[in-house]
Design brief:
The chain is 89% helix and 0% strand. It is mainly alpha-helical and 275 residues long.
């Protein structure tokens, strides 16, 4: 049997197909990662250029701020509030049994401020706003609307990316502040109902457990979350091709990449400030 025959047989094996799939996934991973890095540099450059030349499209920016913060606020508050209630209902009774009633508020404050408020808000934003950004840009890409922008001499990165990334960077901290506050209130109510933790003990221990460093890190981390979600969603949408199926693939990819990015950014901040 000659070499071409052996090669043809190998291509029909499951091992060959699995290795080929893994290689394609790795190539796609690095291509997408490089594309995101390039788009990030372009967006940063265009933001400074637009601000310096006073060419920023403030109407688009305000519209995206409204979508990012106002439209997503109900689902964000719901998710953060429910998670806070669940955690408080499980933690408060156990701490009361061990005589730690005075530390329930402190624990909830640390958990909500450092991690849960920003993480759960980020997940809610990805589910609602990130997926919408990816599908919108992907639809414009596959229907050649992006090419039409280029024909009209409009920079698609400046028009599609910059307002969304800026809105995510500016508005995400406000969303996290509101959701964390709402989560702490829900946690206090749950602690009172499940373990009869008094409001005075909860509030006093809450203030003892909150530090300026925790709040500052949470705000900085949430701003990075917002910018990353918008950038990744727009980039995945911008790389879409192949009609309706391509739009679906781009949206799924944007959600997955955004989840991974949030975990990585959160790990970096935790390592730098709390390790």
């Amino acid at each position: 049997m000659n070499y071409s025959g052996i090669r043809k047989i190998l291509k029909q094996t499951a091992t060959y197909n699995l290795i080929k799939l893994l290689v394609l996934q790795v190539e796609e991973f690095f291509e997408t990662l490089g594309e995101m890095g390039m788009r990030a540099c372009q967006v940063i450059w265009l933001i400074f250029q637009d601000l310096f030349k006073r060419q920023m499209n403030w109407k688009l920016f305000v519209d995206q701020c409204s979508r990012f913060a106002v439209d997503s606020l109900p689902i964000t508050l719901t998710i953060v509030g429910m998670v806070s209630v669940i955690v408080s209902m499980q933690v408060a009774p156990e701490m009361v049994k061990q005589g730690g009633e005075k530390f329930v508020g402190m624990l909830m404050g640390v958990v909500m401020t450092r991690e849960m408020g920003a993480i759960m808000s980020g997940f809610a934003i990805i589910s609602m706003i990130g997926s919408a950004y990816a599908s919108e840009v992907a639809t414009m890409r596959v229907t050649e609307q992006v090419d039409a922008l280029k024909v009209l001499k409009v920079n698609p990165i400046d028009y599609l990316f910059v307002p969304r990334v800026m809105a995510g960077f500016v508005m995400m901290p406000f969303v996290v502040v509101l959701s964390s506050t709402f989560g702490l209130i829900c946690g206090g109510i749950a602690a009172y109902l499940s373990a009869h933790v008094s409001r005075l003990n909860y509030i006093s221990s809450l203030w003892q457990g909150l530090y300026i460093k925790d709040i500052s890190v949470a705000l900085g981390k949430s701003a990075c979350f917002g910018a990353a979600i918008a950038l990744i969603s727009c980039t995945c949408g911008y790389l879409a091709y192949g009609g309706a199926k391509g739009v679906g693939i781009a949206t799924t990819k944007a959600v997955v990449w955004s989840f991974v990015a949030i975990c990585i950014i959160d790990y970096i901040f935790a390592t730098i400030f709390f390790f």
